[in-house]
Each structure stands twice: as C-alpha cells, then as structure tokens.
TrEMBL record:
InterPro entries: MFS, MFS_trans_sf. Keywords: Cell membrane, Membrane, Transmembrane, Transmembrane helix. GO terms for molecular function: transmembrane transporter activity. The chain crosses the membrane at residues 84-103, 115-133, 210-232, 238-257, 328-347, 354-374, 446-464. GO terms for cellular component: plasma membrane. It is a multi-pass membrane protein. This is MFS transporter.
Amino acid sequence: MTSERPEPGPAPDGDTRPPAGARHLGAGLGAGLGTGARATVRGVAAAGRATGRASRYVGRQASRAANAEGAGESGLARLIQMHFFNTAGDAAVAISLAGSLFFQVPSGEARGQVALFLGLTMLPFAVVAPLIGPFLDRFAHGRRWAIGATMAMRAFLCWALATSVTGDSPWLFAAALGVLVSSKAYGVTRAAAVPRLLPAGFTLVRANGRVSLAGIIGAAVSAPLAGLASLAGPEWSLRYAFLLFVVATVCAIRLPAAVDSSVGEGDLVLRGDSDAEPGRRTRTRIPPAVAFALRANCGPRFLSGFLLMYMAFLLRENPPATSLSAELMIALVVGAAGAGNTAGVAAASMLRRINPAVAVVVVLLADLVAILLATLFYGVLWLAVLGLTAGLAQTLAKFCLDSTIQRDIASRVQASAFARSDTTLQLAWVVGGFLGIALPLEPARLGLGVAVAVLGCWTAYVLIGGRSAARRDAALRQYDGPPATAADPEPAADPAPAPAEASSVAYDDMPDTQPMPRLPRDGSA
C-alpha cells in the first residue's frame, strides 16, 4: 500500500516562520557567506603579511645598500636616508600643487605672484648664500641645524599649504615659493656636508652619485603614494609631505658631528691669488678647469629654471595642437625630465673614462640643439624630447663638475668648492626662472626663441672663455719663476712639513697656481 506525503496545512495564526525549504536555503546562504567572509579575511591577512614581508625585505636591502662599503661607519648612510625623504617630500609637494596652484588661479595673476615672491625670496638668498658657509663654520652644529632648518621650514609650509590650498588665501604663493626656496637652500647646505662624510676609498663623484640615486628612488616611491593621497584632495598629499619632511628633519639632526667640522679646510676665490696667512683660513684660487666646468653647468641649470616656469604657463595658456589636456602634457614633460635625470645618473656611472671637459660641452650643445628643435617644430613630442634632454644634461653636467672638483682641487678646499658651485648654479636657475616668467606666452616660439638666443650666447661665451683659459693655463705651465742669482743667499733646508701643510705644498705645485720665488729666512731679497 502506498502512502502519500500529506500536504502541509496552513500555518497556525501568528506563526511567521518561513517555510522549511526557505529556512534550509537561508542556512546554506548564511554558511556560505560566513565561509566566504572568513576566506576573505584570511586572504586579506595573507596579503598583508606578504606585503609586510616584502616591505621589510625592501627596507633591509635598502639599508644594506646605504650602509655598504663603509658608508654606515662614516655617516654617509644617514645623509643618504635624509636625502631619500627629502626628495620624497619634494615629489609629494610637486604633485599636490600641480593641479591646484597653477590651474586654479588665472594665468596673469599667477605669473605676477610667482615673479614677485621669487624676487623677494630667491635673489636675496642667492646673494647671501656665499656667506652662509663661513658663518656656520664658527658655530657648533651649524650645518646640521642649517640642513634641519630647511626641512623643518618645508614641513611647516606644507602644513600651512594644506589649510589654504583649497581656499583663496593670499599667502598661497608665498608658502609655495617658500618650499621651493628651502629646497634650493637644502641643496647648497648638503653640498658642503657630503665631502665630510666620505668613507675610506670613496670619491666625491661616487658619493654624490649614490646620494642622487637615493633621491631618484625616493621620488619614484613617493610619487604614486602622493598621487593616491591627492585623490582625496591636495591637502592630504600635502599632509603626507609634511610627515616626510618631519622625518627628514630628524635625520638631519642625527647626522654625524663631522658635518660641522672645518678643520684644515680653506676657501676658494674665483679671482686673486692664493694665500696662507697665519690665523686665517687658506684661500685658494679656483683652477681654470673647474671654472670652465662651472660656467658650462650654468647653461643646463638656466634651461632647467626656464622650462619649469615657462612650460607651467605655456602648456596651460598656449598648448600645441593636440587632444591631450594641459595637466597631461605637463605630466608628460615633467616625466620626461625625470627620466632624463635617471638616465643622467646611469650615464655618469658608465662614462667614467670620458674627459669631463668634453662631456660638459657635449651636454651644453645637446641642450641648445634640443630647445632649437622644440622652437622650430613646436609640439608635444619635441617638448617631451626637450624635457628629457634637459634632465639628462643637467644631471650629467653636474657629475662632470663634481669629477673636475675632485680631480683638480685639494681636499682641504673641496667643501668650499662644492658650496660655492651649488650657489652659482642656483643663481643660474633663478635667472632662467625669471626669464620664463617675463617672456610672453603668445606666440610660443617667441619665448622659446629668446631662450635659444640666450643659451646660444652663453655657449659661445663658455667655449671662447675656455680657449682663453687653456692658453693661460699653458702659459702658467711653462713659467718656472725668476732665475736665481749668485747674490741670493742659499736658503736653509726646510723641516718636513706637517700633515696639514703637506696638502698645501702639494696643491701649490699644481699647474693652476703661480709658483713664487723662495726668499731667505731673514726676509732680505
């Protein structure tokens, strides 16, 4: 006999429970959701652990690279870490202000304010900067606190910018230009610190190359993070930059005490004779090869300042015919310049056997050709090529200058040479920036043509002046001093020079200094 399953009857009054099938289905869905949630949590946790392990691995490798070859013992590793955070903060500031400062303010008003604050801040700094080094030498912890002050100033200004970037504060441009000035001041103070932290067997060119590479890595790591933060608003990427500069300030204060030492060092002078008066710092004339490399470096640095100020407004008001937005074109040109900087660091390490005097002329001519082509064939492609060439030339020319200073200047005055050369290059950057602000944006080829003319005249001056300096140097090499006479008494034998004097004697024998006739000890002729 077959039995039939009874049909479910109506639910009693007040019974709101779902049917049995629905209850089983809900239980299955709940269990599935719970399992999926637990799997998601486990996946997120595993990804977090993997990211943490990768971050720790990268951090260990970076620390190992920074401390390699004695850099940890000499203190150079601390300066490398500080420069990493410095460039990371600069990249965050650039990304924060790229879409807010230049694109929210009318072009005419923006150019006027930039010119005003650039003149009020940068020119006085460029004039006073040669006095900063000797002034800080007389105080303990002078350079460390000077470097830290440039970091702390940028941290404060970034926090101030974060509160005013979305409004109409009249101090917006002042704070932005203050960040730029502090960044340039940092470059000068850092240049005087690197020679004091060299490990044994390290050259200045190699140390500067390692510091520059750390800066490029810092900018590359920080730029995407700053871009993500800027999606929530430019104020958040500025707060991110504030944190980076706070860390950099701490790193600056923790630099070794050797940064402040100036024992046995001297000063460089562009004109005049060398001297070594008792109780005074030794003054040494800049060799002709260094002066030539410094003048040649002013060309790429001038072009860098010009392009930064001119392109920021040109691509906004008078862009070339293209479907790209102004923001994207600026990002393309800036990205090409950054790629050029990276390529310059790589090229400097591969071209160590190339004569620096030849290389610095080649990059100067390359800059001239690039801006000439960008003027004749005004377009996005040629502007990107110009940015790439300018970044490459600026970096490679600076390495050539560093190499020349390392080769031709005694170690006791190399710190002064680096500080003075960086100050001169910053002044060239300011001149280029002022020209970029002053030139009209329409037609575009007019402003670029003026830059071509200025850079061409400077290139001719460098090449002609280099020939004259070479002739003077050859004349000094052939000069053997006045002949000795029989009436001159024979000077007594000199005792062995002390270590501090030995470097002076060795440097005075170099061909760029004029040998002086020796006098007897009683002072008679």
